[in-house]
Each structure stands twice: as C-alpha cells, then as structure tokens.
Design goal:
about 210 residues, alpha/beta, 5-stranded parallel β-sheet, two-stranded antiparallel ribbon, 11 strands, about 30% helix
C-alpha cells in the first residue's frame, strides 16, 4: 500500500533496523533483504553484479571461440552464451524487484554514509519499479530468457529480455541517523518516520517486554 520507501530517522540503537524485521515477521514476508551502505556504494551494487573476469576465464578454459567481447556478455560463438546467468548475481535491491505476488522487505541501512548521487540515482528505480541488465539486454535476441542468481541463498530467477520489473512493490526501509540532509526530490518521493530515543518509562516497558520471564 505504501508504494514508496520509508525513511526512518533516529539516533543509533533506537531500533530503526529492527522495524524492517518486525514488519517482515508480522506480515509473513520472508527473509529481509539487507543492503548496508558505504561511502563507495553505487546503485549498481544494489541491483546486480556481473563477474566478467570469471566469465572470461571459463570461456578460455573451454576454448569457446572468440572471447574478446566477454566483458560485455556478447560472444561471437552463440554456444558460449549458455551459462551466462551463472555469472550474474542480483543484489538486495535487484532481488527485491523480482516479480512476486507478495512484496519483499528491503532494508537499506546507514544511508547517511552514501555519496550524494546515490539518492538521486535511486529515484528512477523506485518510481518505475524496474531496472535493466545491459549484459543480458545485448543478447536478448539470441537469449530472451536467462536464469540468474539472487541475493537469497541457493535461489535463482528467470530474467526476460534483460529487464526486471516488480509485481508487488517492495517494503523499503531506509535508515538514517539524521547526520546529513537528503535531496528534496528524493524526500518528496518517500515517507518519513522519526523514532525518538525512549524516555525512562518507555525504556522500562521495552526491557519488561524483552525479559518478561
């Protein structure tokens, strides 16, 4: 119902990350997908990773034709395309956008550490609920369907024509300590929730709930 990311702000340790796990548990939405942000995080890191070096090495080991263009997934030998999906791993954000009947919960943690461009880069993905994998789009005429790995252990998903589009928009929780301001355009497309530090009575209630026995 939200269809928009939820930005949760508050001091460290107040329970911002726990909110995502609580929602997933209460609604039965399965394992929480977690993307922990660093100063070097880019949008592609959250969407997918392509192991070009591993792809070249395997093609070379098999002696599979011309591998000069292996870095972009376009091999001259069509037989070398088989197994391409083994070298593509969806990230937490990419896995959250896999089309399913029920949404996944995605936790984007410590967003304060992100580069200023990351918030703007995420806008289009959140608005459209889809993204493209160029390495698969280039070969879609020869391989319209490719099975890739997801962020879930031992799980795979079929990508059609190099494009992934969600069916149920994920429940996205973005945590922030409020140490920096986010772009206004990004904030307009999100919902915000502030979690203040608990007072003495609330802290006592929390302790009682945890250690009821």
């Amino acid at each position: 119902f939200l269809r928009r990311p939820l930005i949760v702000t508050g001091p460290p340790g107040v329970g911002k990350s726990s909110l995502a796990h609580r929602v997933s548990r209460e609604l039965g939405l399965g394992r929480v997908l977690r993307w922990t942000i660093t100063s070097k995080s880019a949008l592609k890191d959250g969407l997918y990773a392509y192991d070009a070096i591993g792809r070249v090495q395997e093609a070379s080991a098999r002696g599979a034709g011309d591998v000069r263009d292996a870095h972009d997934g376009s091999f001259s030998d069509d037989t070398a395309l088989h197994g391409l999906g083994d070298f593509i791993q969806l990230g937490p954000l990419g896995t959250a956008l896999v089309p399913r009947e029920i949404p996944r919960v995605l936790l984007i943690d410590e967003f304060d550490k992100a580069d200023t461009d990351l918030a703007n880069d995420m806008l289009e993905v959140f608005e459209d609920g889809e993204f493209r994998i160029p390495e698969l789009s280039r070969v879609r005429s020869r391989m319209p369907s490719v099975t890739v790995h997801t962020d879930d252990p031992d799980d795979t998903h079929e990508v059609l024509h190099g494009r992934m589009r969600c069916r149920a928009f994920p429940f996205v929780v973005i945590t922030s300590n409020g140490e920096r301001s986010l772009p206004p355009a990004f904030l307009r497309r999100c919902l915000t929730l502030e979690m203040p530090p608990p007072d003495a009575d609330r802290l006592a209630a929390m302790l009682a709930a945890q250690f009821a026995d």
